[in-house]
Amino acid sequence: MPLSGDFKFRRKLEQSENIFADTVNIAATARKKADDCNNQIFHSQAVAWAVQGIEPKYKGTGYTRRDYEESQLQEEFCYIEDKEICTAVRKSFYASKKANNLVYRYGSIKDSQRQARVRVLTRMLWYRLLK
Predict the structure, then answer these.
(1) Which of 34, 101, 126, 129 lies 20 to 30 Å (CA to CA) from residue 14?
(2) CA dihedral sign of residues 107, 110, 115, 118
(3) How far apart (Å, rounded) are the C-alpha atoms in residues 50 and 58?
(4) 7 has pLDDT over 80
(5) What does the alpha-carbon distance between residue 14 and residue 39 come to, in Å, rounded to a whole number?
């Protein structure tokens, strides 16, 4: 059974005389890899790439803009428990993208505080991904 990249790196650290330098080198390599793909990958993906040597999918390797936007939406939604808000933000984001202007779709959300949350999240995503 072949050894994984993580295991090999851990083994290297166990035998290292300067763990700090090895860790800093991996961080620098990961930062360069992320910069080389125009930061279209997550930092965790860049670190895994630096350690394991397996290039993740991104726009340069068939990873589309839509895939990138979806991954950003999913990352944002992992902190939101209210699924209606997630749905409203997703619909608002794509409606805004299509209209090239901020548009809000609340669906069945009638509460003004929850509508405000939809507006704030949509605006954050709009400025992070489209402007």
Answers:
(1) 34
(2) negative
(3) 15
(4) no
(5) 31
How far is the C-alpha of 118 from the C-alpha of 16, rounded, in Å?
50
91-98: list long-range contacts, CB under 8 Å, 24+ apart.
Answer: 92/118, 92/119, 92/122, 93/69, 93/122, 93/125, 93/126, 93/129, 96/122, 96/126, 96/130, 97/130
Contacts for 95 with CB less than 8 Å, ≥ 6 apart: 103, 104, 105
Residue 44, judged by CB atoms within 10 A of its CB (0-12, 13-18, 19+), counts as exposed
pTM score, whole prediction: 0.52
For residue 31, the Cα-to-chain-centroid distance in whole angstroms is: 15
Alpha helices in 37-64 (DSSP H): 43-52
Cα angle: 85, vertex 57, 10; to 5 degrees: 100
Give, in degrees to the nearest 5, the angle at Cα 106 between 101 and 111. 130
Tokens found for residue 31:
């930062």
